[in-house]
Each structure stands twice: as C-alpha cells, then as structure tokens.
Structures
1.
Amino acid sequence: MVQKIAREIRFNAFDMNCVGHIQQGLWTHPRDQSHRYKELGYWMDYARRLEAGLFDGIFLADVVGVNDVYGGNADAALKGAVQVPVNDPMLLVPAMAAVTKHLSFGITANLTYEPPSLFARRMSTLDHLTGGRIGWNIVTGYLDSAAKAIGLSQQAAHDDRYDLADEYMQVIYGLLEGSWRDDAVIFDRANHAYADPAKVRKIRHDGKQYSLDAMHLCEPSPQRTPMLYQAGSSTRGREFAATHAECVFVNGQKIEGVRAIVEDINARALAAGRFPDDIKIFMGATIVTGRTEKEAQEKFEDYRQYASSEGALVHAAASLGIDFSKYDLDEPIQTGKSAAIVSNVEAMTRSAGPQWTLRKLLEQMPLGSRQPPMVGSAEQIADTLAEWATGADIDGFNLSRTVVPECFDDIIDLVIPILQERGMYKTSYRDGTLREKLFDAPRLPGRHVGARARMAG
C-alpha cells in the first residue's frame, strides 16, 4: 500500500469528436458507444457523468487532415475509422457547459491554419459561455493532408512550425490581453454608452507571418486568455512549452524518462522568468481496471479481441511520419528526420531501442495504440498512479477512452474512491474559473510572456 502523499492527482478524460480516437478498433466492441459521437445528447450525458465523478475536465483532441501516410492513402483510415470522420470539437462545448458547473473543456486547435483574430474571438466566446472553463491545446499540426486541404503543397518543417507559433501567440496575447482594458465596459444605459472608446485599442502587428491592425471583437472574458495547454516534448516543443504553456501533456514509457522531460521543462521555464509551479504536467494513460486483478485481466482480454493492429499502425504511421506498410515484421525501421511529431519518434526510440521493428511496435499496442495500458485492480491502479505522480513529478493524467462509457465509470466508481481515501484526490470541486482551480488566479500571472501585452493603466 502506498502511503498518503500531499500531491493531488487530477484527471482529464481524453477523447475526440470521432469514432476511433487512440485505442483503434475498440469502437467495434458491442458495449462501446463512441459511434454516437454525432448526437449532442451523447456529449451532454458524457459531461454530466464526468462532473458527477469529479473529473477535472474533458480534453478533446482534433486533427484537420486525414491519416494517409500508411500505404500512401486514406483507405485504411476510412475503413477502420482512424480519426475519420471527425467533427469540430468546439461546437460541443456550449452544450456540455450548459449541463455542468465545474467541468473544464480543453480544445485542440491548430494555429497553423487559423487566422488569429477569428480564433481569438471564438476562444473569448467560449470563455464567456463556459464562465471561464475553457482551455486551448496549442498545436501546429503534423499532417501534410491538413496543409493540402487549405491549398499548400505540404506542411512546414517541424521547427519552422514552432517559429510560426511563437509569432502567432504574440498576436493572440495582444488581442486577448491588450485590446480592452478590464474597465472598458461601463454599461451606462442612461447615457447610451456600453463601452468607453478610450479604453479599447487596436492591436498592430507586422511580422514575418502575420499582419494585423484591428481591435479584438470581444469584451474581456473571465480568463481573457484561455488556459494554455501544449503537448510537444521535442527539444523545440519543450522550449515553446516553457515560454507559453500552463499545462503540458507528456507520454511516457519509463518513469525516469518522463521525469527527465519534466525537469528539462522546469529548467527552461526558470530561464524564461517563470516558476516550475506555473506549469502542470499531465501524462497520457490508459486504464483497464476492476474490483480484483482477475476481473481487470479478464476485461483486458475481452477488449483486446476488438483492437485493430492495422488501425494502430495507420495512426502511428501518421504521427511518426513513417509508412509502416513498406516494412516486414522484423525489418529494422528507418526513422530519419521526421516532419511529424518528433517527440513521438524520440519516445519510441527510447522504448524499443534504435533498431526497432514492426514486431516490437505491435507488441506495445495490445489495445490498438502506442500507449500500453495500465491493467490491474483498483488498488493496483491507485498504486501505479501514485508511483508515476511522485516518481515522474507529474500533476495528473489524460485518460484515453477504451470502451465508453464503462471505462470512465470504472475509474469513477473504483479508482477515485481509493485515491480519495489516500488523500490524493479531491472530494469536491473548488469554485472559480479553470485557471483559478489550477493556479488560484483568474488571469495569466505577470511573469508570463502573455502578460506583457496588457494595456497599461
């Protein structure tokens, strides 16, 4: 039994507005309900369930292209529902917010293909409608198919996308933090004055990628800037995270490897004038649990029958930038320099060695993803989560779905009560915005780069 620790573990449900997200093939399980992703009632019930179980939030991933690296086309992705079809995640949020009070909503949005002014308006709108419960997962994309969808021949190089992202964030901060003063809205009915023009200004930016001469279209929202999430663990990604992110998502194979990433991000944050406590670290995890170890193993074997190896390879091929259809099972895979998710290639190399093969990769994907599941009784799962939290110095977990909704019901009914007994999980929600719940402050701290854009006075 692990002793009580002071650290409070946090849970986000990790999902996507589609049929097949991370665990490829499990949508074919007879009890899985993910095929109902087109029903608004499905997502509203989902949100109610998570809030009743004291989950911190639901984090919605997204892509704006198709996984067409495997075999050089999208056939296998379409057949296996590998993140296609996929609907817009933002449109789900108001409905889920309307039936909850505390649950937060993390939305993935690809800044590479979004005009900053229009995106800033959508984020402010969601922050208003949710009462300050919105977060933005900043991504730069990894699919050439997404670039081609807007008329480009291919995506920019990995590090170039982060250079673009740094400039994009300058524009976003200007709009969200610097266009309206906090007291710009006066709501003076007698004098027919809603806002004071002297307290609203245009944001002017003339950079390498973006030009802007416009005021923000929205009045200040509860958080102004949404909670900032980021998932890149490459060297360039960590640099970006240390500058901008408030929550960083990592995927781990070994505790010591994840801890090294966390320590590096913290050191970079200090160099950027921030504190390590300014950043919360969430690790991706998949949990299969039961009241006993035997029950959990039986459930795992049941799920395993429905997992799709081909679907897993389709998704991995896109995120790693490698066409696995060209390799035999035991042929060494050549990674080279990838334009996809560099940190994924680095993580796989750490896990399987420099000469990894398709067979080694498939061995690590028993449920149709590159994320080996945690399988065990609720007590064992609680032990494992505690070990990761302390050993890797992480703050919480992004829990990817397997068979929904039962996978989250199991965590709510079986695992969370044990964590609560150990003093490792909240027993009620705190009031306030998402940022207040995580950092005790409604706005970006003054030491964050985004605060520099604020209007003086």
2.
Amino acid sequence: MAFNPPGFRTIMLLALGFGLRTLSKALERAGDLAGEPGTRLFHHVSALVLLIAAVACFIWALKRMFFDRPRGPEEKAAPVAPPKPVEIYLEEASFDSDAALARYMRNRTGAASGDLPAPKPPGGFGRKGL
C-alpha cells in the first residue's frame, strides 16, 4: 500500500464530503425541531441520504490516496505507434483532379435538364473560372 499525495480531485472529494456532512447535520437539526411527524421523517431521511453520500466521498478519496497506482514523474506513457498508411493515401498519388471535376459537372443535378449554365473551363491557378 503506497501513499499518493492528494491532488486537486482528491481534495475536492474531501471538501465535498465535509460539505455534505455539514448539510446533513443541519437537516437533522431541522428535523429535530419540526413539529409534524411527516416533516420530521423527511428531514431525517434526507439527512441520512446526504450522510451516506458524504461517506462515499470519503471512501473514494481514501481509495485515491492509498490504493491507486502511484504516478511519479519517472513514469512515462507508452509511446504511440505511428499510423499505418491506408489504401486511400496510396490512391491519392494517382488522383486526377480534372477528371473528377469533369465527372462532377456531368453528374450535377439539373445539368441534364439544361437548367444550369454550361460550365466554364478552369481559369488558372485555384480554378478561378468556376
């Protein structure tokens, strides 16, 4: 069993546990001072639920401090393998942009019915003629 110094999350869990415990005490006190039995029961059951949540926060924080694997600066993450080339990258070398543009202009919706104007030929760098 090794001790891990508490980090921000562990400290927040402890603070949440103490806050829930304080709220549970206040609800229990309100239940003691209530006049009707139904109201007293509601306050006491609510206090019990909050107390159980506080205990769960404390247990979780203790687990993080004593039973988690220690993380030190000497431990490094496993190196990530570089991605392997996919078939699509191999096909890019043989890609013909003029043929793809011609195929797109041929298959556009409305081109067959004559609604769209005839495509202009590409005009220089960056296909400014489109």
3.
Amino acid sequence: MATAKFTDEQIRQRLERRDRELDAARQISQALFQHLSVEELVEQALRIALEVVNGQAGCVLLADPNSKQLVFYHAIGEKAPPRGTAFPWDKGIAGSVFQTAEPVVTKDVKQDQRHLGDIDEATGYTTHDIIALPLKRWEGDPIGVLEVMNKKDGELDQEDVAILTIISSFTAISIEEARLIEEARLAEVVRVLGDIGHDVKNLLMPVLCGASLLKEEVDEVFAHLPNIEMAKAQASHKLCHEVIEMLETNARRIQDRVKEIADCVKGLSTPPTFGPCRVVDVITVVNETLRFVAEEKGITLTSTGLEKLPNIEADERRLFNAFYNLVNNAIAEVPRGGSIVVRGTPDPSGKGIILAVEDTGRGMPAEVRDSLFTAKATSRKVGGTGLGTKIVKDVIDAHGGRITVESEIGTGTTFYIHLPYQPPKASPR
C-alpha cells in the first residue's frame, strides 16, 4: 500500500495549523476557568476566533425560540451591528447554518444568494468572505451561530473551519453551562421569594388592622374637637384620611408586587385581565401614591393630555405597576425643584395612544440606556437589580404595546409607551 508523501512545505504548514489549533484550544480553555460571565466569555471567545484566523470582524448570534430569530449577542469589528439586532432563524447564511447544524465557508458572499445584504446596508460594512459555524456541542442541536468575516491575509477556508470548530464548541458548552447555573440560581431565588411573600403577608396584616383602628380613632378625636380653628382641623382630618388610605392601599399592593416579582423571576406571568380602562385614572392614582415621596424631595408630579384620551382595553393593575415603576425610578434621578410629567396623545396611526413619562433628571449614559429592557439591564440605585425594567417591559408586551427611551446625561429621560386600543386577544367585558 502506497504511503502519502509530503513536501517539507506541506509538513511545515500542517505543523503550523496544528500549533494554531492547540493555541486556540489553550486560550479558550483558559477562558473557561476564569469564572467569566457569559457576556465576557462570549466576547473573549470571539476575540480568540478572530485572532487565530486573522479575521477582520465577527459576531455571535443566539437563537430566540419564542420569536424564532437569530439575535446578535455580541459583535466585534468596524460598524458592527447593534446588540439585539435580529432576523428570522431560517434566513441568511447564518440561518442556513443554524438549520442544518453544518458550517459554511463562503469565499465571495456576492455569489451566495443566502447572504443578507440588508445587514451590510444598515451598518455600512462590506462583507467579502465568511465562515459561519453552528454553536453547539459535538452532539446536540445548535443554540446559535458564530461568524467570522473578511480574512486580512487571504481568504477564509476549510483549514480555518477546523480551528473555529474548537472555539465554537467550547463556547456553546460554556453558554449552556452558564444557563443551567442561572436556572439553578433562579430556582433558589423563587423559593426564597415564596417564603418572603408568606412573611410579608403576615407582617402586613397588623399594618392593615392598625390602619383601620387608627382611622376610627382619628374620626372620633376630630368629632369631639371644639369649633375653634375648624378649618385647620378639617384640613388635618382630611390629611390623616389620605395617609391612612395610602397605607391600606399600598400594604395590599406590596403583597401583589411580591407575587409579581416572583413570577417575573420565574419567567412566568399570570394572564392579564383586560377591561375598559381610563388611563387618566391609573396615572392619577400613581401620582397620588407617590405624592408624599415626591413632595419630600421637592419634586412636582403632573400629567397632561390624559383626560382627552379615549378608553382602552387594559389590565389596570398591571398598568399601575408599570407606571409606578417608571415614576418611582424617575423620582430617584430628579434633583430638588425638578419635575416628572406624564403626557398623553392619540397615536397618529389611529390604532392606540402614546404616553410619555418625562423627567428633568440627570439622564443616563449610553451603555445604561441601551441595556434597558434587555437581559443585561442593571440598576444604578444602591441595591437595585434592574428587575423593575423587566416588569415594565412585560406589562407593555402583555398589552401588545412597545416602549422606547430617550436619554442623555444632563438632559433628563423620556420613556415612550405605545398602547393599542385593543390588546391581542382581548375581549371587552
């Protein structure tokens, strides 16, 4: 049997390729043992991939089973697509790789009909050659796609695929492991929240009973006051009633909120209860609930244009929670003498309404603003978790609406909420 003979140059090239493969495995293995977050690990894996094949740009796309899309999780290179950009998971070269679980090498994307030129157009980047590999373990279904574009010293080829397969496999394992760890943590958090919810309910019962007794006592005391300074007494009586009512209302809402937070952490959501809703009533209650907190900080809470809005089909309790979160968070950002206003206008499309929560606060840096309503959302408040923004997003999504934000340092923040007159599958009652 004949033995294959290799030239010295071929042997040298094979040894070089083997060295690169070993170096890639070494680097990605080191990253695995550095206890990095998923975001940090994905970024490092992508940088290693670009380094070992001398690529100009690259990205990691993860599959979203709910929307059936591939979502840009991280991208490196000039004019990289923004995080969160998505397209159907059966479109483009990446979609083909995700569906077949087989890598693709394209030396000229202009000759490949699968290439999504829209993304190049949107970013202004020009893709020439590309390697796309499924993000998966050696066995199992893909969870996403790793792409490397535009080799700096030639064209991407099958030899590069071998090196990148090592990196993509280790990256997929790391992402799946991180997800399992996160699920275990959330399971423990949910258990603890269940215990907390039970304790909160027990602790709030004396508050509710005490508020009721206090109301009776205040009524009796004011009934026996002499007629002198009656106007002042009546004002004090009214204020006491307002404070007691606020205590009773918010004690009950605390119970609801603990349950809602637990559901949010579990990724669950109680089906919304839709009915005719006057948004002006919801915002009025929000502002009344937070009035004492705002007054103590010297902040004005107002609304405008809400009285003229038509009724919509909505879950009033959930809308209250969403706007309570937005206004309460704004209070923490607004300096003394500032203001928070909720504005309402009909949507020009004629299909719903637009609400704006506008504050004169310190504004947000771009990285915080852009991470809102994503998995990377965090809070700038001491002890904050960023969970409030997820609750807001879940409420708006449940109503078939959308929320956006505009903010810059020193110019304040405005949240825009678009709500349809009729949410998905809502039936008037």
4.
Amino acid sequence: MVAALLFASCDNEMIWDYASASMIVRITDDSGTNLLDTTQTGHLFQKGMGMLETSYKTNDKDDPYVRHEEPIQTLEAYRQKTGTRAYIGPWAGAVLTKSPDKKEPVLFIGEFSEHSGSGDIELTEALFGEPDQRELTLKFDDGRSVTISYVHAASLSHKLKTKAKVVEKSEGLNVSVDFDTQYSVDYLYVEQ
C-alpha cells in the first residue's frame, strides 16, 4: 500500500532505462579458419588493427549520414585506456577479445546505448528510430571489410528489440553476428 501511494504521488516525468546491447562478431574463411585469431595464417590483423565506422541516417538533406570512426582495439589497449572495471557498460567500440565460453577470438562491439558509439545523438532517435537506419563497418587494414545494419529499439512496453544483419562483406569472409544484451564485463574481463 505504501508503494502504491509513493508511485501515485509521482508527477508525470518518467525515467527511461533500457538495457544496453552488444554485438559479438565472428569471422572465418571458407575453410572455417578463424580470421580473428592472430596465430592463424591469413588473419585480418597482419597489417594493423583497422577501423570501426558507425553511422546513422538523419533527415538533413545536405548531410544525410552522421559518421564516427575509431580504431579497432586489442584487449590490452582497451584496458589501458579504461583502467578500471568499476563502471560497467561504457562504449568500448570494437575490441578483439575472447568469448567467455569457448575462449575463441571474437570482436566485441558495444555496449550500444543512447549514444550508440556515434556521439551525442538524442535518446529518442537512437532507441526509437526507424529500423535499418544505423550501420557499422569494420574496415581491416588488409583491405577487407564487413558492413552490418542494426536495430537497437525499445517499445513503450519496455520490450527491447535487437537485430543485426550483414549487408556487405569482402569475398571469402563468413560472418556471424550475435546482437543482444551481452555485457562488456563478460567479454572484456573474461578471466576475472
């Protein structure tokens, strides 16, 4: 009864809190070799780590896309930059790490939130925007690339919708993407 009275006394302002989501990207060649594994011949990082480009569509006719580019990081570089795991859930960008279950090399991309890694965009635009309006591209220094279209949306009934699909990739790359409420602590602090 006390709880009901407290909620009834609140004004019309609401606090919105939606779960962040992250992508786990796996890339193999046609023979099944994990191209994210730097111990394998022909891996994607022989010439450098490459870049992650995120973009989303706007209604601006002169500049219809907002783009943001940042380097793909090793796990060590990410940890040196952040220094602590006390704050879980900041945008990490793309980090080469290992899956907590199989210990296989994967790219962790996330956590996607109201900023979606693309700078200060409005909460409503990022979470309630039209599907297929946001993309990210992994540009590897050897010239290969993968482009993924994604949706991170929430309904007014608090249902989170995450969806990702590969829309373009270099020849010979097999890409799988898991996009859901996967948290950075599971991938960026695997052994802890």
